[in-house]
């Protein structure tokens, strides 16, 4: 029983961390409090709806979504990177478009909705609770995450240029996930150790990631 509750707490902590992405977009764009509350409430309602659908959605639909998972990751990654570049370019030209572009990082995306639904499904099964009750719990955690993180990130006093940087960083993170996760799954299926034969293939990817992050750091230092 203790293990079940520990797993449930771990999932809820993961949901809270997942909500930070929305909080970053709202906080860095300095979105009005009413709109932040509206967005957080929207996530709460969506969570309750998804929780209510637990047990009603056929497993084949989830398998279909899972098969599209990496494709969605790549698509979202490209959108985040492009929007981040656009936000920075406009800010450097004297135009603040963060009130619009923040939606790319803050509104529910297919990956986010899938994560919420799977979390509701696992919690409902583990805790033996009805789906709508689990949806309320998940929704409250996400709601609190968005509200609290928005307040914290707003206090940092960041500019839309920083929002663009975060978007590009998250885009690269999504892209790396889309490349590494299938390779990891394939390695596990082939029962091959991660250090056997795969180290040389992953080294260029690591170097490429460090190169990109170093470019972001240099650009930030140059801007200061």
Main features:
83% helix, mainly alpha, globular, 224 residues
Describe the structure.
There is one protein chain. This protein has one domain. Helices cover 83% and strands 0% of the residues. The longest helix is centred in the last third of the chain and has 30 residues, at 160-189. It is built from 9 helices and no strands. It comes from Methanolobus halotolerans. The chain crosses the membrane at residues 6-24, 36-56, 68-86, 102-124, 130-153, 165-185, 197-218. This is Membrane transporter. Keywords: Membrane, Transmembrane, Transmembrane helix.
Biggest sheet architecture: none
Low-confidence spans:
192-205
The helix content is over 70%
Count the E strands.
Answer: 0
Shape: globular
Order of helices and strands: HHHHHHHHH
Report how far apart the termini are. Answer: 53 Å
How large is the share of residues in beta strands?
under 5%
Could you give the topology of this structure?
Layout: H1 2-28, H2 33-52, H3 59-67, H4 69-92, H5 98-106, H6 110-127, H7 131-155, H8 160-189, H9 199-223
Summarize the structure.
The chain has 224 residues and is mainly alpha-helical.
């Amino acid at each position: 029983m203790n293990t079940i509750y520990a797993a449930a707490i771990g999932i809820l902590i993961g949901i809270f961390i997942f909500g930070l992405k929305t909080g970053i977009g709202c906080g860095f764009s300095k979105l009005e409090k009413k709109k932040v509350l509206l967005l957080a409430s929207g996530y709460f309602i969506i969570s309750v709806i998804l929780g209510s659908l637990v047990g009603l959605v056929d497993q084949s639909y989830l398998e279909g979504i899972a098969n599209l998972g990496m494709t969605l990751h790549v698509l979202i990654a490209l959108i985040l990177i492009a929007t981040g570049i656009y936000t920075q370019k406009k800010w450097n030209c004297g135009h603040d478009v963060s009130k619009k572009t923040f939606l790319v990082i803050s509104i529910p995306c297919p990956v986010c909705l899938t994560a919420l639904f799977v979390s509701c499904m696992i919690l409902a099964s583990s805790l033996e609770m009805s789906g709508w009750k689990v949806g309320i719990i998940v929704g409250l955690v996400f709601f609190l995450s968005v509200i609290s993180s928005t307040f914290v990130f707003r206090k940092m006093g960041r500019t839309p240029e920083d929002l663009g940087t975060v978007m590009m960083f998250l885009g690269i993170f999504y892209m790396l996930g889309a490349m590494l996760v299938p390779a990891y799954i394939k390695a596990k299926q082939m029962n091959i150790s991660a250090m056997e034969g795969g180290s040389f293939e992953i080294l260029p990817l690591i170097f490429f990631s460090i190169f990109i992050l170093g470019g972001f750091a240099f650009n930030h230092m140059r801007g200061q």
